Amino acid sequence: MRPRWRGGVNAWKRADRSRRLVWGFFGAMTLGFWVGVLAVCIYFIQMFNGVELFGPLLIRKALSMLLLAFSGLLFFSNIITALSSYFLSDDMQLIQSLPISQRRVFYFRAVDTMINSSWMISIFGLPVLLAYGIVHGGGPLYYFVATVGLAAYLVPPSALGIVIACLLVRGFSASRIREVMALVSAAFLIIVLLLLRSLQPERLVDPEAFETLAEFIAVVRTPDASWLPSTWLTELCMWTLGSPLEAPWLTAGLLFVAGPSLLVLSRWLVAPLFFDAWTQAQEAPRRAASRNKYVSQFIDTVTRPLPVAFRALMRKDIRLFLREPGQWTQGLLLIGLVAIYLYSVRSLPLDVLPLEDVMENAIAFLNVGVAGAVLAAIAVRFNFTAVSQEGRAFWVLHSSPVGARRFLQGKFLVGFIPTLILGEVLVISTNALLHTEPLYAWIAVGTIFCLCYGLTGLAIGLGALYPNFKADNAARMASGPGAILFMVTALTWTSLVIAAEAIPVSMLLYRQYAGIPVGAGLTIGLVAVFTAVVVLNLAVAIIPMRRGAAKLWGDLGNVGD
Q1: pLDDT tens digits, 425-474
Q2: Domain membership of residue 516 as a residue range
Q3: Burial of 348 by CB count in 10 Å (0-12 exposed, 13-18 middle, 19+ buried)?
Q4: How far lies 429's CA from each of 190, 378, 418, in Å?
Q5: DSSP conformation class of 348
Q6: pLDDT by residue (tens digit) across 155-170?
Q7: Is residue 124 domain-shared with residue 99, that is, in the same domain?
Protein backbone atom coordinates (compact mmCIF):
# COMPACT_ATOMS: atom_id res chain seq x y z
CA MET A 1 0.00 0.00 0.00
CA ARG A 2 2.95 2.35 0.61
CA PRO A 3 3.63 3.36 -3.04
CA ARG A 4 0.12 4.80 -3.34
CA TRP A 5 0.45 6.63 -0.04
CA ARG A 6 3.84 8.02 -1.04
CA GLY A 7 2.42 9.06 -4.41
CA GLY A 8 -0.27 11.14 -2.73
CA VAL A 9 2.25 12.71 -0.33
CA ASN A 10 4.64 13.56 -3.16
CA ALA A 11 1.84 15.08 -5.24
CA TRP A 12 1.07 17.41 -2.32
CA LYS A 13 4.72 18.28 -1.63
CA ARG A 14 5.53 19.03 -5.27
CA ALA A 15 2.40 21.12 -5.86
CA ASP A 16 2.84 24.87 -5.98
CA ARG A 17 0.94 27.29 -3.77
CA SER A 18 -1.85 27.98 -6.27
CA ARG A 19 -2.53 24.29 -6.77
CA ARG A 20 -2.66 23.70 -3.03
CA LEU A 21 -5.15 26.55 -2.70
CA VAL A 22 -7.29 24.95 -5.40
CA TRP A 23 -7.19 21.61 -3.61
CA GLY A 24 -8.05 23.29 -0.32
CA PHE A 25 -10.98 25.14 -1.90
CA PHE A 26 -12.42 22.00 -3.47
CA GLY A 27 -11.81 20.08 -0.26
CA ALA A 28 -13.82 22.67 1.65
CA MET A 29 -16.50 22.51 -1.04
CA THR A 30 -16.69 18.71 -0.68
CA LEU A 31 -16.96 19.04 3.10
CA GLY A 32 -19.71 21.63 2.69
CA PHE A 33 -21.65 19.31 0.41
CA TRP A 34 -21.28 16.48 2.93
CA VAL A 35 -22.59 18.74 5.70
CA GLY A 36 -25.53 19.65 3.44
CA VAL A 37 -26.38 15.96 2.97
CA LEU A 38 -26.22 15.54 6.76
CA ALA A 39 -28.58 18.50 7.25
CA VAL A 40 -31.10 17.09 4.77
CA CYS A 41 -31.01 13.70 6.51
CA ILE A 42 -31.57 15.35 9.90
CA TYR A 43 -34.56 17.29 8.53
CA PHE A 44 -36.32 14.23 7.13
CA ILE A 45 -35.64 12.06 10.19
CA GLN A 46 -37.03 14.77 12.46
CA MET A 47 -40.07 15.11 10.23
CA PHE A 48 -40.86 11.38 10.26
CA ASN A 49 -39.97 11.04 13.92
CA GLY A 50 -42.67 13.60 14.75
CA VAL A 51 -45.41 11.30 13.43
CA GLU A 52 -47.10 9.59 16.37
CA LEU A 53 -46.90 5.80 16.62
CA PHE A 54 -45.71 5.24 13.04
CA GLY A 55 -42.71 7.60 12.96
CA PRO A 56 -40.14 5.54 14.91
CA LEU A 57 -41.26 2.33 13.17
CA LEU A 58 -40.93 3.82 9.70
CA ILE A 59 -37.54 5.35 10.54
CA ARG A 60 -36.13 1.96 11.54
CA LYS A 61 -37.60 0.29 8.47
CA ALA A 62 -36.24 3.04 6.22
CA LEU A 63 -32.70 2.57 7.58
CA SER A 64 -32.92 -1.17 7.10
CA MET A 65 -34.16 -0.88 3.52
CA LEU A 66 -31.54 1.76 2.68
CA LEU A 67 -28.70 -0.44 3.96
CA LEU A 68 -30.17 -3.42 2.12
CA ALA A 69 -30.22 -1.44 -1.12
CA PHE A 70 -26.61 -0.41 -0.49
CA SER A 71 -25.72 -4.08 -0.01
CA GLY A 72 -26.96 -4.97 -3.49
CA LEU A 73 -24.98 -2.14 -5.06
CA LEU A 74 -21.87 -3.09 -3.07
CA PHE A 75 -22.15 -6.74 -4.09
CA PHE A 76 -22.23 -5.96 -7.79
CA SER A 77 -19.63 -3.21 -7.56
CA ASN A 78 -17.20 -5.51 -5.73
CA ILE A 79 -17.52 -8.20 -8.39
CA ILE A 80 -16.72 -5.72 -11.16
CA THR A 81 -13.88 -4.12 -9.20
CA ALA A 82 -12.42 -7.50 -8.17
CA LEU A 83 -12.32 -8.58 -11.81
CA SER A 84 -10.25 -5.50 -12.62
CA SER A 85 -8.13 -5.46 -9.47
CA TYR A 86 -7.20 -9.15 -9.28
CA PHE A 87 -7.17 -10.30 -12.90
CA LEU A 88 -7.13 -7.42 -15.40
CA SER A 89 -4.90 -4.91 -13.62
CA ASP A 90 -1.59 -4.21 -15.40
CA ASP A 91 0.51 -4.06 -12.24
CA MET A 92 -0.42 -7.62 -11.26
CA GLN A 93 2.31 -8.88 -13.61
CA LEU A 94 4.88 -6.99 -11.55
CA ILE A 95 3.36 -8.01 -8.21
CA GLN A 96 3.25 -11.68 -9.23
CA SER A 97 7.01 -11.59 -9.96
CA LEU A 98 7.95 -10.05 -6.59
CA PRO A 99 8.98 -12.13 -3.53
CA ILE A 100 5.69 -11.45 -1.78
CA SER A 101 3.44 -14.14 -0.32
CA GLN A 102 0.13 -14.79 -2.05
CA ARG A 103 -1.63 -14.21 1.25
CA ARG A 104 -0.31 -10.65 1.45
CA VAL A 105 -1.15 -9.98 -2.19
CA PHE A 106 -4.69 -11.24 -1.62
CA TYR A 107 -5.36 -9.03 1.40
CA PHE A 108 -3.78 -5.98 -0.27
CA ARG A 109 -6.04 -6.44 -3.30
CA ALA A 110 -9.03 -7.08 -1.02
CA VAL A 111 -8.52 -3.72 0.71
CA ASP A 112 -7.97 -2.07 -2.68
CA THR A 113 -11.16 -3.64 -4.04
CA MET A 114 -13.22 -2.61 -1.02
CA ILE A 115 -12.01 1.01 -1.11
CA ASN A 116 -12.53 1.45 -4.86
CA SER A 117 -16.01 -0.07 -4.82
CA SER A 118 -17.32 1.35 -1.53
CA TRP A 119 -16.06 4.93 -1.23
CA MET A 120 -19.24 6.49 -2.58
CA ILE A 121 -21.48 4.36 -0.35
CA SER A 122 -19.35 5.35 2.64
CA ILE A 123 -19.58 9.06 1.85
CA PHE A 124 -23.36 9.01 1.46
CA GLY A 125 -24.08 6.35 4.12
CA LEU A 126 -22.21 7.92 7.01
CA PRO A 127 -24.32 11.15 7.08
CA VAL A 128 -27.46 9.01 7.36
CA LEU A 129 -26.13 7.15 10.40
CA LEU A 130 -24.84 10.34 12.00
CA ALA A 131 -28.22 12.02 11.45
CA TYR A 132 -29.95 9.21 13.36
CA GLY A 133 -27.62 9.80 16.31
CA ILE A 134 -28.07 13.57 16.26
CA VAL A 135 -31.88 13.39 16.13
CA HIS A 136 -32.17 10.70 18.82
CA GLY A 137 -29.41 12.05 21.05
CA GLY A 138 -27.05 9.11 20.62
CA GLY A 139 -24.07 8.83 22.94
CA PRO A 140 -20.43 7.90 22.23
CA LEU A 141 -21.38 4.22 21.96
CA TYR A 142 -23.74 4.95 19.07
CA TYR A 143 -21.19 6.93 17.09
CA PHE A 144 -18.59 4.22 17.64
CA VAL A 145 -21.01 1.53 16.43
CA ALA A 146 -22.14 3.68 13.48
CA THR A 147 -18.64 4.44 12.16
CA VAL A 148 -16.86 1.17 12.94
CA GLY A 149 -19.99 -0.82 12.11
CA LEU A 150 -20.26 0.85 8.70
CA ALA A 151 -16.68 -0.23 7.94
CA ALA A 152 -17.47 -3.79 9.08
CA TYR A 153 -20.65 -3.75 6.98
CA LEU A 154 -18.56 -3.13 3.84
CA VAL A 155 -16.39 -6.24 4.27
CA PRO A 156 -18.83 -9.14 3.55
CA PRO A 157 -19.88 -7.89 0.08
CA SER A 158 -16.21 -7.43 -0.78
CA ALA A 159 -15.31 -10.98 0.31
CA LEU A 160 -18.20 -12.52 -1.62
CA GLY A 161 -17.48 -10.39 -4.69
CA ILE A 162 -13.87 -11.59 -4.78
CA VAL A 163 -14.88 -15.25 -4.61
CA ILE A 164 -17.50 -14.90 -7.35
CA ALA A 165 -15.08 -12.97 -9.58
CA CYS A 166 -12.46 -15.72 -9.21
CA LEU A 167 -14.98 -18.48 -9.92
CA LEU A 168 -16.24 -16.66 -13.00
CA VAL A 169 -12.77 -16.11 -14.43
CA ARG A 170 -11.74 -19.68 -13.58
CA GLY A 171 -14.88 -21.18 -15.07
CA PHE A 172 -14.88 -19.07 -18.23
CA SER A 173 -11.95 -18.52 -20.51
CA ALA A 174 -10.60 -15.01 -20.92
CA SER A 175 -11.89 -14.99 -24.47
CA ARG A 176 -15.41 -15.22 -23.04
CA ILE A 177 -15.02 -12.41 -20.52
CA ARG A 178 -17.90 -10.57 -22.22
CA GLU A 179 -20.23 -13.44 -21.40
CA VAL A 180 -18.95 -13.37 -17.82
CA MET A 181 -19.73 -9.68 -17.44
CA ALA A 182 -23.15 -10.10 -19.02
CA LEU A 183 -23.89 -12.99 -16.66
CA VAL A 184 -22.90 -10.91 -13.63
CA SER A 185 -25.04 -7.97 -14.76
CA ALA A 186 -28.06 -10.18 -15.43
CA ALA A 187 -27.68 -11.95 -12.07
CA PHE A 188 -27.47 -8.64 -10.25
CA LEU A 189 -30.56 -7.34 -12.04
CA ILE A 190 -32.56 -10.45 -11.12
CA ILE A 191 -31.45 -10.30 -7.47
CA VAL A 192 -32.35 -6.61 -7.10
CA LEU A 193 -35.76 -7.07 -8.72
CA LEU A 194 -36.53 -10.04 -6.45
CA LEU A 195 -35.48 -8.05 -3.38
CA LEU A 196 -37.70 -5.13 -4.37
CA ARG A 197 -40.68 -7.34 -5.01
CA SER A 198 -40.22 -9.13 -1.68
CA LEU A 199 -39.94 -5.86 0.26
CA GLN A 200 -42.90 -4.16 -1.45
CA PRO A 201 -41.85 -0.71 -0.19
CA GLU A 202 -44.86 1.00 -1.71
CA ARG A 203 -47.13 -0.67 0.86
CA LEU A 204 -45.43 1.17 3.72
CA VAL A 205 -46.80 4.53 2.58
CA ASP A 206 -50.31 3.22 1.97
CA PRO A 207 -51.86 2.06 5.27
CA GLU A 208 -55.20 1.48 3.50
CA ALA A 209 -53.62 -1.51 1.74
CA PHE A 210 -53.81 -3.35 5.08
CA GLU A 211 -57.03 -4.66 6.54
CA THR A 212 -56.28 -3.54 10.10
CA LEU A 213 -53.97 -1.13 11.86
CA ALA A 214 -52.40 -4.04 13.73
CA GLU A 215 -51.46 -5.69 10.44
CA PHE A 216 -49.76 -2.50 9.23
CA ILE A 217 -47.78 -2.17 12.46
CA ALA A 218 -46.83 -5.86 12.32
CA VAL A 219 -45.48 -5.51 8.78
CA VAL A 220 -43.45 -2.42 9.66
CA ARG A 221 -42.05 -4.04 12.80
CA THR A 222 -41.23 -7.32 11.09
CA PRO A 223 -37.47 -7.85 11.32
CA ASP A 224 -35.51 -8.33 8.15
CA ALA A 225 -33.51 -11.43 7.29
CA SER A 226 -31.30 -12.15 10.31
CA TRP A 227 -28.37 -13.33 8.16
CA LEU A 228 -27.82 -9.99 6.36
CA PRO A 229 -25.16 -7.50 7.50
CA SER A 230 -27.64 -4.67 6.84
CA THR A 231 -29.94 -6.15 9.50
CA TRP A 232 -27.10 -6.50 12.02
CA LEU A 233 -26.00 -2.89 11.56
CA THR A 234 -29.58 -1.57 11.72
CA GLU A 235 -30.48 -3.50 14.89
CA LEU A 236 -27.25 -2.59 16.63
CA CYS A 237 -27.58 1.12 15.80
CA MET A 238 -31.21 1.24 16.94
CA TRP A 239 -30.28 -0.66 20.13
CA THR A 240 -27.69 1.96 21.05
CA LEU A 241 -30.44 4.57 20.56
CA GLY A 242 -32.74 2.83 23.07
CA SER A 243 -34.70 0.27 21.02
CA PRO A 244 -35.02 -3.19 22.59
CA LEU A 245 -32.88 -6.03 21.23
CA GLU A 246 -32.88 -9.59 22.53
CA ALA A 247 -29.22 -10.48 21.96
CA PRO A 248 -27.18 -7.31 21.34
CA TRP A 249 -23.80 -8.97 21.91
CA LEU A 250 -24.66 -11.74 19.47
CA THR A 251 -25.62 -9.15 16.86
CA ALA A 252 -22.40 -7.22 17.52
CA GLY A 253 -20.40 -10.43 17.19
CA LEU A 254 -22.04 -11.23 13.89
CA LEU A 255 -21.38 -7.73 12.52
CA PHE A 256 -17.74 -7.42 13.58
CA VAL A 257 -16.66 -11.05 13.18
CA ALA A 258 -18.54 -12.20 10.08
CA GLY A 259 -16.71 -9.77 7.76
CA PRO A 260 -13.13 -10.76 8.67
CA SER A 261 -14.18 -14.42 8.83
CA LEU A 262 -15.67 -14.27 5.34
CA LEU A 263 -12.53 -12.54 4.08
CA VAL A 264 -10.32 -15.33 5.48
CA LEU A 265 -12.69 -17.95 4.10
CA SER A 266 -12.61 -16.28 0.70
CA ARG A 267 -8.80 -16.45 0.72
CA TRP A 268 -8.94 -20.19 1.44
CA LEU A 269 -11.34 -20.66 -1.48
CA VAL A 270 -9.48 -18.40 -3.90
CA ALA A 271 -5.90 -19.49 -3.08
CA PRO A 272 -5.91 -22.81 -5.03
CA LEU A 273 -7.70 -21.20 -8.01
CA PHE A 274 -6.10 -17.78 -8.26
CA PHE A 275 -2.95 -18.42 -10.28
CA ASP A 276 -4.72 -20.48 -12.95
CA ALA A 277 -7.52 -17.89 -13.13
CA TRP A 278 -5.03 -15.03 -13.43
CA THR A 279 -3.11 -16.89 -16.12
CA GLN A 280 -6.31 -17.43 -18.11
CA ALA A 281 -7.14 -13.74 -17.81
CA GLN A 282 -3.87 -12.88 -19.60
CA GLU A 283 -4.84 -14.82 -22.72
CA ALA A 284 -5.72 -12.86 -25.81
CA PRO A 285 -9.49 -12.56 -26.33
CA ARG A 286 -11.32 -13.50 -29.44
CA ARG A 287 -11.86 -10.93 -32.15
CA ALA A 288 -13.71 -8.01 -30.66
CA ALA A 289 -17.12 -6.92 -31.88
CA SER A 290 -15.56 -3.70 -33.18
CA ARG A 291 -13.62 -5.74 -35.77
CA ASN A 292 -16.76 -7.31 -37.15
CA LYS A 293 -17.32 -6.28 -40.76
CA TYR A 294 -20.92 -5.20 -40.28
CA VAL A 295 -20.21 -3.33 -37.03
CA SER A 296 -17.33 -1.50 -38.70
CA GLN A 297 -19.53 -0.54 -41.65
CA PHE A 298 -22.20 0.75 -39.28
CA ILE A 299 -19.67 2.87 -37.33
CA ASP A 300 -18.20 4.26 -40.55
CA THR A 301 -21.65 5.12 -41.95
CA VAL A 302 -22.83 6.88 -38.80
CA THR A 303 -19.69 9.00 -38.45
CA ARG A 304 -19.17 9.80 -42.17
CA PRO A 305 -21.00 13.21 -42.08
CA LEU A 306 -18.63 14.54 -39.38
CA PRO A 307 -15.44 16.52 -40.06
CA VAL A 308 -12.30 14.49 -40.55
CA ALA A 309 -10.84 15.06 -37.06
CA PHE A 310 -14.14 14.35 -35.25
CA ARG A 311 -14.73 11.34 -37.46
CA ALA A 312 -11.38 9.78 -36.59
CA LEU A 313 -11.75 10.47 -32.87
CA MET A 314 -15.30 9.12 -32.67
CA ARG A 315 -14.45 5.96 -34.58
CA LYS A 316 -11.53 5.34 -32.26
CA ASP A 317 -13.58 5.92 -29.09
CA ILE A 318 -16.50 3.76 -30.23
CA ARG A 319 -14.21 0.88 -31.17
CA LEU A 320 -12.32 1.13 -27.89
CA PHE A 321 -15.64 1.15 -26.04
CA LEU A 322 -16.74 -2.04 -27.77
CA ARG A 323 -13.40 -3.74 -27.08
CA GLU A 324 -13.63 -3.08 -23.33
CA PRO A 325 -16.08 -5.57 -21.76
CA GLY A 326 -16.18 -3.68 -18.47
CA GLN A 327 -17.69 -0.72 -20.33
CA TRP A 328 -20.38 -1.90 -22.69
CA THR A 329 -21.66 -4.84 -20.63
CA GLN A 330 -22.66 -2.39 -17.91
CA GLY A 331 -25.43 -1.36 -20.26
CA LEU A 332 -27.39 -4.28 -18.82
CA LEU A 333 -26.97 -2.78 -15.38
CA LEU A 334 -28.20 0.60 -16.61
CA ILE A 335 -31.25 -1.04 -18.17
CA GLY A 336 -31.93 -2.77 -14.86
CA LEU A 337 -31.62 0.46 -12.90
CA VAL A 338 -33.94 2.25 -15.31
CA ALA A 339 -36.50 -0.54 -14.95
CA ILE A 340 -36.32 -0.38 -11.15
CA TYR A 341 -36.58 3.41 -11.24
CA LEU A 342 -39.67 3.37 -13.45
CA TYR A 343 -41.26 0.63 -11.37
CA SER A 344 -40.75 2.72 -8.23
CA VAL A 345 -42.46 5.70 -9.88
CA ARG A 346 -45.34 3.54 -11.05
CA SER A 347 -45.81 2.14 -7.53
CA LEU A 348 -46.27 5.56 -5.91
CA PRO A 349 -49.73 5.61 -4.24
CA LEU A 350 -50.77 8.96 -5.68
CA ASP A 351 -54.43 7.96 -5.79
CA VAL A 352 -54.65 8.07 -1.98
CA LEU A 353 -53.25 11.62 -1.81
CA PRO A 354 -55.32 14.81 -2.15
CA LEU A 355 -54.92 16.96 -5.26
CA GLU A 356 -53.83 14.01 -7.37
CA ASP A 357 -53.33 16.05 -10.56
CA VAL A 358 -51.21 18.70 -8.82
CA MET A 359 -49.12 16.03 -7.07
CA GLU A 360 -48.47 14.21 -10.34
CA ASN A 361 -47.15 17.38 -11.97
CA ALA A 362 -45.06 18.26 -8.89
CA ILE A 363 -43.49 14.80 -8.75
CA ALA A 364 -42.80 14.92 -12.49
CA PHE A 365 -40.84 18.13 -11.97
CA LEU A 366 -38.94 16.85 -8.90
CA ASN A 367 -38.17 13.70 -10.87
CA VAL A 368 -35.84 15.81 -13.03
CA GLY A 369 -33.57 16.32 -10.02
CA VAL A 370 -33.48 12.59 -9.29
CA ALA A 371 -32.73 11.85 -12.94
CA GLY A 372 -29.94 14.45 -12.83
CA ALA A 373 -28.38 12.68 -9.84
CA VAL A 374 -28.55 9.36 -11.73
CA LEU A 375 -26.89 10.95 -14.77
CA ALA A 376 -24.14 12.43 -12.57
CA ALA A 377 -23.36 8.96 -11.19
CA ILE A 378 -23.20 7.57 -14.73
CA ALA A 379 -21.09 10.48 -15.99
CA VAL A 380 -18.41 9.95 -13.35
CA ARG A 381 -18.00 6.37 -14.53
CA PHE A 382 -18.02 6.92 -18.30
CA ASN A 383 -17.47 10.60 -19.17
CA PHE A 384 -15.08 11.65 -16.40
CA THR A 385 -12.76 8.72 -17.19
CA ALA A 386 -12.85 9.28 -20.98
CA VAL A 387 -9.56 11.22 -21.06
CA SER A 388 -7.78 9.01 -18.52
CA GLN A 389 -8.62 5.88 -20.49
CA GLU A 390 -6.19 6.95 -23.18
CA GLY A 391 -3.56 5.73 -20.72
CA ARG A 392 0.02 5.39 -21.90
CA ALA A 393 -1.07 5.94 -25.50
CA PHE A 394 -1.99 9.56 -24.77
CA TRP A 395 1.29 10.71 -26.30
CA VAL A 396 -0.02 9.58 -29.72
CA LEU A 397 -2.90 12.06 -29.49
CA HIS A 398 -0.63 14.69 -27.97
CA SER A 399 1.70 14.50 -30.99
CA SER A 400 -1.10 14.36 -33.58
CA PRO A 401 -2.28 17.40 -35.58
CA VAL A 402 -5.50 17.47 -33.51
CA GLY A 403 -5.89 20.35 -31.06
CA ALA A 404 -6.78 19.86 -27.42
CA ARG A 405 -10.18 21.54 -27.73
CA ARG A 406 -11.12 19.43 -30.72
CA PHE A 407 -9.97 16.32 -28.85
CA LEU A 408 -12.20 17.16 -25.86
CA GLN A 409 -15.09 18.11 -28.15
CA GLY A 410 -14.87 14.65 -29.69
CA LYS A 411 -14.96 13.10 -26.22
CA PHE A 412 -17.92 15.33 -25.38
CA LEU A 413 -19.89 14.22 -28.44
CA VAL A 414 -19.29 10.53 -27.71
CA GLY A 415 -20.45 10.98 -24.10
CA PHE A 416 -23.30 13.44 -24.63
CA ILE A 417 -25.41 11.35 -27.04
CA PRO A 418 -25.90 8.24 -24.82
CA THR A 419 -26.28 10.43 -21.71
CA LEU A 420 -29.02 12.45 -23.44
CA ILE A 421 -30.83 9.32 -24.63
CA LEU A 422 -30.81 7.80 -21.14
CA GLY A 423 -31.93 11.04 -19.47
CA GLU A 424 -34.77 11.66 -21.90
CA VAL A 425 -35.96 8.05 -21.62
CA LEU A 426 -36.12 8.42 -17.84
CA VAL A 427 -38.03 11.71 -17.95
CA ILE A 428 -40.40 10.90 -20.82
CA SER A 429 -41.28 7.48 -19.40
CA THR A 430 -41.91 8.97 -15.97
CA ASN A 431 -44.12 11.69 -17.45
CA ALA A 432 -46.13 9.05 -19.30
CA LEU A 433 -46.59 6.97 -16.13
CA LEU A 434 -47.67 10.03 -14.11
CA HIS A 435 -49.95 11.42 -16.86
CA THR A 436 -48.15 14.77 -16.63
CA GLU A 437 -49.67 17.79 -18.33
CA PRO A 438 -47.87 18.91 -21.52
CA LEU A 439 -46.45 22.13 -20.06
CA TYR A 440 -44.73 20.37 -17.15
CA ALA A 441 -43.62 17.55 -19.45
CA TRP A 442 -41.89 20.03 -21.78
CA ILE A 443 -40.24 21.74 -18.80
CA ALA A 444 -38.87 18.39 -17.63
CA VAL A 445 -37.65 17.42 -21.11
CA GLY A 446 -35.94 20.76 -21.68
CA THR A 447 -34.34 20.81 -18.22
CA ILE A 448 -32.90 17.32 -18.54
CA PHE A 449 -31.48 18.25 -21.96
CA CYS A 450 -29.66 21.21 -20.38
CA LEU A 451 -28.44 19.08 -17.48
CA CYS A 452 -27.14 16.39 -19.84
CA TYR A 453 -25.19 19.03 -21.74
CA GLY A 454 -23.82 20.70 -18.63
CA LEU A 455 -22.94 17.50 -16.73
CA THR A 456 -21.24 15.91 -19.74
CA GLY A 457 -19.09 18.97 -20.39
CA LEU A 458 -18.29 19.28 -16.69
CA ALA A 459 -17.25 15.61 -16.53
CA ILE A 460 -15.04 15.85 -19.63
CA GLY A 461 -13.48 19.12 -18.47
CA LEU A 462 -12.70 17.98 -14.91
CA GLY A 463 -11.47 14.65 -16.29
CA ALA A 464 -8.99 16.62 -18.40
CA LEU A 465 -7.99 18.82 -15.46
CA TYR A 466 -7.42 15.80 -13.21
CA PRO A 467 -6.39 12.93 -15.51
CA ASN A 468 -4.92 9.69 -14.21
CA PHE A 469 -3.05 8.07 -17.07
CA LYS A 470 -1.31 5.63 -14.72
CA ALA A 471 -4.49 3.97 -13.45
CA ASP A 472 -4.88 0.44 -14.74
CA ASN A 473 -8.68 0.24 -14.65
CA ALA A 474 -11.67 2.55 -14.96
CA ALA A 475 -12.85 1.90 -11.40
CA ARG A 476 -9.67 3.46 -10.03
CA MET A 477 -9.96 6.40 -12.42
CA ALA A 478 -13.46 7.09 -11.10
CA SER A 479 -12.51 6.96 -7.41
CA GLY A 480 -9.86 9.69 -7.07
CA PRO A 481 -10.11 13.25 -5.73
CA GLY A 482 -11.10 14.58 -9.15
CA ALA A 483 -14.03 12.15 -9.31
CA ILE A 484 -15.21 13.17 -5.84
CA LEU A 485 -14.95 16.81 -6.88
CA PHE A 486 -17.04 16.13 -9.98
CA MET A 487 -19.76 14.31 -8.02
CA VAL A 488 -20.00 17.11 -5.47
CA THR A 489 -20.07 19.80 -8.17
CA ALA A 490 -22.52 17.89 -10.37
CA LEU A 491 -25.01 17.18 -7.56
CA THR A 492 -24.74 20.75 -6.29
CA TRP A 493 -25.32 22.14 -9.76
CA THR A 494 -28.32 19.86 -10.34
CA SER A 495 -29.82 21.03 -7.04
CA LEU A 496 -29.30 24.69 -7.96
CA VAL A 497 -30.99 24.24 -11.35
CA ILE A 498 -34.01 22.55 -9.77
CA ALA A 499 -34.18 25.19 -7.03
CA ALA A 500 -34.11 28.01 -9.60
CA GLU A 501 -36.89 26.48 -11.69
CA ALA A 502 -38.91 25.55 -8.60
CA ILE A 503 -39.94 29.19 -8.08
CA PRO A 504 -41.98 29.66 -11.30
CA VAL A 505 -43.08 26.00 -11.32
CA SER A 506 -44.48 26.30 -7.79
CA MET A 507 -46.42 29.37 -8.93
CA LEU A 508 -47.79 27.37 -11.85
CA LEU A 509 -48.86 24.58 -9.48
CA TYR A 510 -50.57 27.07 -7.18
CA ARG A 511 -52.53 28.54 -10.09
CA GLN A 512 -53.50 25.03 -11.16
CA TYR A 513 -54.71 24.32 -7.62
CA ALA A 514 -56.61 27.62 -7.34
CA GLY A 515 -57.95 27.52 -10.89
CA ILE A 516 -56.28 30.83 -11.80
CA PRO A 517 -55.16 31.24 -15.43
CA VAL A 518 -51.46 31.67 -16.13
CA GLY A 519 -50.68 35.35 -16.66
CA ALA A 520 -48.17 37.00 -18.97
CA GLY A 521 -45.87 37.91 -16.07
CA LEU A 522 -45.48 34.30 -14.96
CA THR A 523 -44.90 33.18 -18.54
CA ILE A 524 -42.15 35.78 -18.98
CA GLY A 525 -40.60 34.73 -15.67
CA LEU A 526 -40.62 31.06 -16.66
CA VAL A 527 -39.01 31.86 -20.02
CA ALA A 528 -36.39 34.04 -18.30
CA VAL A 529 -35.48 31.34 -15.77
CA PHE A 530 -35.27 28.66 -18.44
CA THR A 531 -33.10 30.93 -20.62
CA ALA A 532 -30.77 31.47 -17.67
CA VAL A 533 -30.60 27.70 -17.13
CA VAL A 534 -29.65 27.19 -20.79
CA VAL A 535 -26.93 29.86 -20.70
CA LEU A 536 -25.47 28.72 -17.38
CA ASN A 537 -25.37 25.06 -18.46
CA LEU A 538 -23.49 26.14 -21.59
CA ALA A 539 -21.00 27.93 -19.33
CA VAL A 540 -20.73 24.94 -16.96
CA ALA A 541 -19.88 22.71 -19.94
CA ILE A 542 -17.62 25.05 -21.95
CA ILE A 543 -15.48 26.66 -19.23
CA PRO A 544 -14.15 23.39 -17.68
CA MET A 545 -13.47 21.99 -21.16
CA ARG A 546 -11.45 25.07 -22.13
CA ARG A 547 -9.48 24.91 -18.88
CA GLY A 548 -8.99 21.19 -19.36
CA ALA A 549 -7.72 21.71 -22.92
CA ALA A 550 -5.12 24.20 -21.72
CA LYS A 551 -4.09 21.83 -18.92
CA LEU A 552 -3.77 18.79 -21.19
CA TRP A 553 -1.60 20.37 -23.88
CA GLY A 554 0.14 22.82 -21.53
CA ASP A 555 2.94 24.87 -23.04
CA LEU A 556 3.32 22.62 -26.06
CA GLY A 557 0.85 24.63 -28.13
CA ASN A 558 -1.93 23.39 -30.41
CA VAL A 559 -4.61 24.12 -27.81
CA GLY A 560 -7.22 26.05 -29.75
CA ASP A 561 -7.43 24.23 -33.07
Answers
A1: 888 888 888 778 888 888 889 999 999 999 999 999 998 888 887 776 66
A2: 300-561
A3: middle
A4: 22, 19, 16
A5: -
A6: 998 999 888 888 878 7
A7: yes
